[in-house]
Amino acid sequence: MDTSLHTGTAVERSFRVYNPKVLGIALGEARRSAGLTQSEMADRIGVDRSYISEMENGKETEQLRRLFQVLRELDIKMLLQSDLW
User: Which GO molecular-function terms appear in the entry (predicted)?
Assistant: First the structure.
């Protein structure tokens, strides 16, 4: 679930991240808000564009699956915020 918080003139949006799909949506929106293409983002971090695409499409890796499993077990909520959104 995403929400908008208004403080003065700045709008801050946040994403409650509970699975790789939502994480991918948030990362894709942040990348687009930063004015970057997938290729530009990939070049900046030294990976193939396909990696960025898979991440933004919520590809579930073993590491991400286990991370979200640990978060659920410990009742920890992940919230991403950015002034760019």
Answer: DNA binding
Closest CA relative to residue 28, chosen from 60, 51, 47: 51
β 10-17/2-7 pair status: antiparallel
Q: Regarding beta strands 78-82 and 2-7, do their DSSP bridges make them parallel or antiparallel, or are they unpaired?
A: unpaired
Rounded to two decimals, the pTM is: 0.76
Read off the CATH number of the domain in which 70 is found: 1.10.260.40
> What φ, ψ does residue 80 adopt, rounded to 5°?
-105, 135
Cα–chain center distance at 9: 24
User: Across 1-85, where does the E strand assignment appear?
Assistant: 2-7, 10-17, 78-82
pLDDT for position 43: 98
Question: Tens of pLDDT along 26-42?
Answer: 999 999 999 999 999 99
